[in-house]
Amino acid sequence: MPKNTQVMLMKDLSVELGSNKVLDSVNLAMMAGERLAIVGPSGSGKSTILRLLAGLLLPSEGSLKISGIDQNYLRLDQNSPPDVRLVFQNPALLASLTVKENVGFLLEKQKVLPEEIINKKVINCLQKVGLYDVADKFPNQLSGGMQKRVSFARALISDSKKGKGSIPLLLYDEPTAGLDPIACTRIEDLIIKTTEAAEGCSIVVSHVSSTIERTANRVLLLYGGKFQWDGSIDQFKQSENAYVKQFRTGNLQGPMQPEDS
Ligand SMILES: Nc1ncnc2c1ncn2[C@@H]1O[C@H](COP(=O)(O)OP(=O)(O)OP(=O)(O)O)[C@@H](O)[C@H]1O
Q: How far does the centroid of ligand 1 lie from the alpha carbon of residue 43, in Å?
């Protein structure tokens, strides 16, 4: 994919929730090949950004473009929605459907491809995340870790109605929260593998330093409704910027204080 293709653009974008201005005139351009980590203290608006990109929320002011198209409607009201795939913190699988039905849900709904092709695609996606012989099982017959893998396999399914040119945007919401360090490494590997296999761009929201460092090539720090810092992962690891330093070290002293957030 050409590196100069713009995948997403936020222009003077604000979001007000009740009396709270969660995002305050933010600007952000994301290009093909970028893997972003969005970091910031609790309540700084990270999930709000993911909700905007997933089409669950619209900006109060300003504009959001995905693949060059202005997002003026919520996702369910769009005729030709952009290819944005959300991997939730918990696997969010439908308990009454088999693994195969969960992963192939979009393709079944679209009724474009024949059943045997859908089956092949689903098995292929499951194998890519290291799952074998689970297609006919129900989610509650799998371990938590396996369920998480199923949710990654679901993000690998490409929309049969999308042209080859479209670049999928994969969103990962706190994918390693509460996991032990070894499970973290497995999920981080899976994020990298899934994003590569989908030939997409990724945005990871995470507080976990290994996840930020291993899955992203660019980091944005969100606080007070604005991106306070934007740079490469190598710059993030060394930056003397007061926000970045406080986030990295967990210092109580610094520009980010709980009463402000
Ligand atoms: N429906 C809502 N109505 C009013 N305020 C809301 C609503 N949803 C979220 N907020 C507020 O918006 C702000 C941003 O919330 P958001 O969940 O995006 O933060 P976050 O950075 O993802 O936090 P965390 O790291 O704790 O998940 C918070 O102050 C929150 O209280």
A: 5
